[in-house]
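SEQUENCE-TO-STRUCTURE ENTRY
===========================
What this section holds: a protein sequence and its matching fold, both as plain text.
Question of interest: how does this chain fold, as expressed in backbone structure tokens?
***
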Amino acid sequence: MTVSDGRPHVNGGTGATERSTLSLDDGDIHVCQDGPRDAPVLLLIHGSASSTRSWDRLVPLLTGSHHVIRMDLLGHGRSAKPADRGYAIPDQARRAGAVLDRLGVGHAVVVAHSSGGVVATALAEQRPGLVTALALINTGPGPDAFIATESAAIGPAQWPPTDEQLRLFASTAFSRPGYRIPEELLDDVRGMTHHTFTATMAATRSFLEQRALPDRLAVLGTPLLVIFGEDDRRWRSSSAADYHAVPGAKVELLPGLGHSPLLEDPPRTATPLLAFTAVHAVRGNR
């Protein structure tokens, strides 16, 4: 059950995830909240063709010391998927800021995975007073870092993809061949429309082509942590070094993990993340 006026519905049980639907001007946004409400806020932003569910295994490791907020970006998960709205990265970032405003959050460390890091960077550009620090997990710094793979284009007439196409698409998100891909992640792709899938992918590419993330972040002064699975099959892990152009940036490579360390090994992902947030998280919403 969700409500459209922003009031949360709390599932039964201690420590249950609080889910709500916030009605923004250009579409409804699904939001999850976990952890103590008086703790420093972490905003988690998922990558393309994913949802809040990609964080499920990491969240329990973060809620001991943080109020964790997750949202499905427009076009993803349980959020609206309109065909007549903009999916450009600045638009997605504006919505993320609006969600925090509606929840009464004045400061947050923003943690993002893959292309979610592009949205997080745009949010830091738009709202530097809101974003106290950034943690990017396997976010490629620029288009040159992308590892091209052979995949058959899927047209609108073939949508949604077949199970075989979905597993091929998702396989590069993990380092180990034969890794059992969580079914809910495949469902997230199935749940998208062809328009939202292609529009969001194109938006990420366009934003990176305009200006690489390290160049954008270097002028902001926002504390930065970069976590990168060393065996990433979508973005060259060596490209993580590009983020050293950002003054004071910390870069952590995780050997043996791929594009989705938050799923492959949540404890190893949480360790540098919690050390970073312990320094930069701000207690108090306003």
In short: The CA atoms of residues 43 and 110 lie 5 Å apart. The domain at 9-280 is CATH 3.40.50.1820 (Rossmann fold). The mean pLDDT is 91.
